[in-house]
Design brief:
Blueprint (H helix, E strand, L loop, with lengths): L20 H11 L6 H27 L12
């Protein structure tokens, strides 16, 4: 059995944002009856969006500058 480690809660900052009512209703419908808060859902959704944007950015960089492409040498 592994050792018990006391979890470290990450530092947080309070941010106040406005959501359109329809988004609030949609999120509430998704989390109703589940052990999830609006805040937890929102944080996970933002993390997922960040990962997605970063992945797309990396794919774009690879498409623009493929690692295996080399300039042609026409000095023959």
């Amino acid at each position: 059995m592994g050792k018990f480690k006391i979890p470290v809660v990450p530092a947080t900052t309070n941010k106040s944002i406005r959501f359109p009512n329809d988004i609030i209703e949609d999120v509430q419908e998704l989390i109703d009856g589940k052990p999830c808060t609006f805040t937890a859902f929102t944080i996970e959704a933002v993390r997922s969006a960040i990962r997605s944007v970063k992945e797309e950015s990396e794919e774009y960089k690879v498409q623009q500058h493929p690692a295996d492409s080399k300039p042609e040498n026409n000095d023959k």
